[in-house]
Amino acid sequence: MGWFKRNKNKDSEGGSIKIVEGMWVKCPFCRAIIFKREIDRNLKVCLKCQYHFPMTVEERLELIADPDSFQEWDADLIPGDPLKFHDSQPYKARVEKAQQKTGKREAILTGKCQISGCAVALGIFDFSFMGGSMGSVVGEKICRAVDQAILERMPFLLITTSGGARMQEGTLSLMQMAKTASALAKLQEAKLPFIVLLTDPTFGGVTASVAMLGDLILAEPKALIGFAGPRVIEQTIKQRLPEGFQRAEFLLEHGMIDQIVERKTLKSRLRSLMVHCGTSVSA
Amino acid sequence: MREFLEFEKPLKELEERIAKLVKAKSKKASVQDAIVKHSEQLTKLEAEIFSNLTPWQRSQIARHPQRPSISDYVEHMTDEFQEMHGDRLFGDDQAIIGGFALWKDRSVMMIGHEKGKSLKERMRRNFGMAKPEGYRKALRLMKLAERCKRPVITFIDTPGAYPGIDAEQRGQSEAIARNLLEMARLQVPILAVVTGEGGSGGALALGVADRVFMLEHSIYSVISPEGCAAILWNDPSKASEAASALRMTAPELLKLKVIDEIIPEPLGGAHRDPVMMAKRLSETLETHIRELQTMKLPSLLKHREDKFRSMGVWSTAKTPVTQMKAVTAS
Ligand SMILES: [Zn+2]
């Protein structure tokens, strides 16, 4: 949907850690300058304000999956260029650049793993790949992961971070919202739980489809989550946004999410919730 | 009075010239000849302009201030309309209207965006930009139609869902997402028509249907051309380029299999003859509703699922990922 515009000057929304002289990190939330090593040792959580810095897909997997339990699905899916889209550069070139930069083929990783002995189908958005935007491949991979969850009677866990639908695939990207929602309807009918973890930032077409359809919706502390991006809203209503607007705490207060979960308790929390939802635990 | 768009200026000039000649009431043969000549020129020019519209020009027609909307179609297509109000949770969003209609001796549920025409009405309708209560009202009415076994017909015409503080507070994303999921499995036929502007998620929230149509000059897009230009070109004035790049017109979207059929508009656009437009729309809907009503429910739902499931373009890579990583490393 692209409501969410990244601003190169303001680091609070870029989803990347600003490194000062390589060794130091500036917290986008409290602006504290902290030793990068200290942050890394603390699960990438700010020591001063508990802001949860973005994690890579691999770091997230390591945080929740039992060792060697992950099995990737559909790693070979690659996007086409149905629109022959061209702005300052062709879409194909943008995709190739993103693939070179990240070593990934697309903006989501899907597969299955065990979380403390609970088998789960899993999707993790990758913000470093074109802002985690949802195009045809992301939509298709989510649908296939849901199919597999139904086939193997597993819950589906989705960890989101995205700027929204991918503009370069036009209306086909918009349709991925309907496509994924339709798959999730089947998951509901199969009476399998869908758990979402919202991380910083999650916006646009991803929030307005898969992200807000969780049976259980969790969020990381201070994560920015919304439909329209803050700047678009400010331009529309021509007034300043209130403090804490669109943060995870704001969503919790307004009844939009179930819990805010800190990284250090995430794995045990997920396991417990899955067990409550009826997932069996293997030894 | 007819409002002319920027690219219609040559037509306006010709029309004015003809009007002046007619007003002179001259019986001179040369004047009469000039009137005939200009009129022929006008017809030719109009046909030429409207058969070669750029995507940006089409989007101007789609957003024309006099573009017919659900209110007009209800007026010209139905014998009765019982509007229903409110979402039972917060309020009655004026940007979306809906209710039972008597259409061709059938009871159907009609729901659609309403932008309004006069400035005062536009403000009351929030320019067709719905808030969560609008989508929730629409869903409530769809569920009612399901219970009464009535088909649902939606009319899509919105710049997008409203980007505001209150809308976010009340769960704009959740409201849209919920409609997508519930429409995917609603147990009655759904037909959606993009009548004007199909603006991103706010449009799709009424657009998960068994049949999706577009009026000839309507647009349907993931983002407005202005928004896309601002983000990808860093320059909102590049909206015309963005409109082309986004492939948001009816013919392009038919090719991409996002829609099922294009409904031709009267020359110059639907606003030039709303009655004829309503008649054509009615005929198309009639053909498809007959087809859908012969389908058994499981097959109807399976077709709807498959329709959206097949949307998108992807392929399978030949090289394994590990090899690609090696390329990156070198
Ligand atoms: Zn901090």
Any key phrases for this structure?
A: alpha/beta, 2-enoyl-CoA Hydratase, Chain A, domain 1, 7-stranded mixed sheet, 3-stranded antiparallel sheet, 9 helices, 11 strands, 33% helix, B: alpha/beta, 8-stranded mixed sheet, binds zinc ion
What does this molecule look like?
By secondary structure, chain A is an alpha/beta fold. Chain A has a single domain, classed as 2-enoyl-CoA Hydratase, Chain A, domain 1, CATH 3.90.226. Chain A has helices at 36-41, 57-64, 91-102, 136-151, 170-189, 204-207, 230-237, 248-253, 263-276, and strands at 18-20, 24-26, 33-35, 71-73, 77-79, 108-115, 118-125, 156-162, 194-202, 216-219, 259-260. In chain A, the strands form two sheets. In chain A, strands 4-6-7-8-9-10-11 form a seven-stranded mixed sheet, with helices on both faces. A three-stranded antiparallel sheet of chain A has the order 1-2-3. Chain A is globular. Chain B is α/β, with parallel strands linked by helices. Helices cover 50% and strands 16% of the residues of chain B. In chain B, strands 1, 2, 3, 4, 5, 6, 7 and 8 form an eight-stranded mixed sheet that branches. Residues 323-330 of chain B have low confidence and may be disordered. At the A-B interface, β5, α3, α4, α5 and α6 of A face α7, α8, α9, α10 and α11 of B. β5 of chain A pairs antiparallel with β9 of chain B, so a sheet runs across the interface. Bound molecules: zinc ion. Residues 27, 29-30, 32, 46, 48-49, 51 of chain A line the site of zinc ion.
